[in-house]
Design goal:
Largest sheet: 6 strands, mixed
CATH topology of the largest domain: Nitrilase/N-carbamoyl-D-aminoacid amidohydrolase
CATH superfamily of the largest domain: Carbon-nitrogen hydrolase
Order of helices and strands: HHHHHHHHHEHEHEEEHEEHEHHEEEEHH
Distance between the termini: 20 Å
CATH architecture of the largest domain: 4-Layer Sandwich
Number of strands: 12
């Protein structure tokens, strides 16, 4: 079976006899390639304006892998992604350095295996299949990062393009996976062209990346030139400058609600003594306080009533991050007999809506909990082995479903912190009727690292994928508002008490990705299985070294 440009077009790329190069020289060259590729992968994650580097980041290690053994290929891939992930995930040190080392090791093994499988298929087919092998495998690997309890899609390759607005518009069709596919396809094709000396016989390998970049760029330009629905909501995002990584005492709750209330009133009133009751231009008003901003907002009748009165005075829908006793289900609380407490109360990380008419609605409780953060597998053993573990006091319960709620501002869907890295929760909420998405996030435990900025930057995908405004409130920043085309309309600074107001609108319809979901990883899975099946029956032609 022959497909695409064959490996006979560049005989130096297939396994041949050992070269005369000494082992120390080979290892030294491998190290240089690993360091170069790791650095190029890190740059777009460190600064979103450096997205172009991702299109050449894999070339150094791919050129080294062509003639190497599978063991060497594994270690080159493993080492590159170990360095990349170890730097990118440095915020995990809040749990302890050993957890970062363990998590990075496990993920790097996956990347090492992925490159081995990719080169095994290339050598089996004696063909590059127009540079579609590695993109297919790495899309599946990135998709795997969103599955299961231990999924961690923070450093997936599409995030390198969060600042490349024309390209990422394709996510409204393919999800973020289409961006990963294009980035890896360009890397692989360029590596083949370089290795083949850009000779006429190898130039067809450029057909696929040129076509993809051209079509995606044209689609992105047209989409960015299009108009958005008229804003109907005056959204106020509020953040405090104090960490919530402290014991949630009654004193902390009082200071927290005082701070958030004062910041809100100062932001949306003309005169602090005379709050206006109607938003400008007949817009409705929505106020968003971050994840666990006032932890007892739904557990203390006094705190709850204080927020109810504030919502009434400002004629605003308040969305407040807090802990609740039962899973958010979009059903208003019956407060006629006081604050209801279930027979078997749990701990739920929730977003609760306070309407101007006094209605209180537990909108949503976080479903995808942070492993070893909000829920601890093998808790007895973990806390015994690591008595210094910072979050070992109790587990949080997962919510009951992707609930949305009708408010005076529209149908609201909420995600909580870490969940916004996963495409599925936001998509499920929009499919359930959400017309606007909000995020409550506790970023204070990131400290002053780049993690808070990365979190804000990566969330552009959720807005583009689903064609919705995405309003982000983070405890100590970065808070932001993202429009349906991925533009960040406003962004706050870290550890600055602040409130910002931005006009936003409701989605006009559903995107292809919202309707069809993760069809591209499914297609990649079918293609990969067919390649594997074919690889065991294909007859390999003899190639003279």
């Amino acid at each position: 079976m022959q497909a695409g440009v064959t490996m006979t077009d560049y005989p130096q790329l297939h396994p041949g006899p050992k070269t005369d190069t000494s082992l120390p020289v080979q290892i030294g060259t491998d190290i240089v390639a690993v360091l170069l590729s790791a650095t190029l992968l890190v740059l777009p994650m460190e600064n979103g304006n450096y997205w172009l580097f991702a299109f050449v980041a894999l070339i150094p290690i791919l050129l080294r892998m062509w003639t190497r053994t599978y063991l060497s290929i594994f270690f080159i891939g493993f080492a590159t992604f170990y360095l990349y992930l170890f730097y990118t995930l440095q915020w995990i040190d809040v749990y302890g350095l050993h957890w970062r080392i363990f998590l990075v090791f496990m993920n790097s093994v996956s990347y090492g295996v992925a490159f081995v499988v990719g080169f095994w298929l290339m050598r089996r087919y004696r063909s590059h299949l127009f540079a579609t092998l590695l993109p297919t495998i790495l899309v599946l690997l990135d998709f795997k990062q969103t599955i299961g309890f231990l999924g961690l899609p923070w450093p997936i390759l599409c995030h390198s393009q969060a600042g490349n607005l024309p390209l990422i518009q394709i996510a409204s069709i393919t999800g973020c996976w289409g961006v990963t596919w294009i980035v890896v396809n360009v890397n692989e094709a360029l590596a083949h062209l370089i290795a083949g000396g850009f000779k006429a016989r190898v130039l067809p390998i450029a057909i696929v990346p040129i076509a993809l970049i051209g079509v995606s760029g044209l689609y992105g330009a047209v989409k960015l030139a299009g108009s958005l629905p008229e804003p109907t909501i005056e959204a106020t995002i509020v953040q405090w400058d104090e960490s919530t990584n402290v014991q949630w005492t009654s004193q902390f709750n009082r200071r927290s609600i005082d701070a958030y209330s004062e910041l809100t009133i100062d932001e949306i009133t003309i005169d602090p003594e005379s709050p206006r009751t109607e938003a400008p231009s007949d817009m409705v008003r929505m106020v968003i306080w971050p994840e666990t901003s006032v932890p007892d907002a739904a557990r203390s009748l006094g705190t709850l009533n204080r927020i109810r009165m504030l919502a009434n005075a400002l004629n605003a829908t308040f969305l407040v991050g807090c802990m609740t006793w039962s899973a958010g289900d979009g059903v208003p609380l019956d407060l006629s007999a006081g604050l209801p407490v279930p027979d078997n109360p749990g701990d739920y990380n929730s977003i609760v809506a306070f309407e101007p008419d006094g209605t209180v609605i537990p909108v949503y409780s976080k479903i995808h909990l942070v492993p070893l953060g909000e829920v601890i597998p093998l808790k007895d053993q973990v806390t015994k082995w690591f008595p210094e573990y910072p979050w070992g006091s109790g587990d949080v319960s997962p919510g009951s479903g992707f609930h949305v709620v009708q408010t005076q501002a529209g149908v609201v869907g909420a995600v909580v912190c870490y969940e916004s890295f996963f495409p599925q929760p936001a998509r499920n909420l929009v499919n359930n009727g959400a017309e606007i998405l909000v995020l409550g996030s506790n970023t204070s435990w990131f400290g002053r690292t780049r993690a808070s900025y990365q979190h804000a930057r990566f969330d552009v995908y959720r807005a583009v994928e689903n064609g919705v405004w995405f309003c982000r409130a983070a405890t100590t920043g970065v808070s932001s508002v993202i429009d349906p085309q991925g533009r960040t309309l406003i962004e706050t600074e870290l550890f600055v008490a602040d409130a910002v107001t931005v006009p936003v609108g409701l989605r006009a319809g559903k995107t292809i990705y919202t309707r069809w979901g993760d069809w591209l990883p499914a297609l990649c899975g079918v293609y990969f299985i067919l390649l594997l099946l074919g690889a065991f029956v294909v007859k390999r032609p003899h190639i003279e070294p």
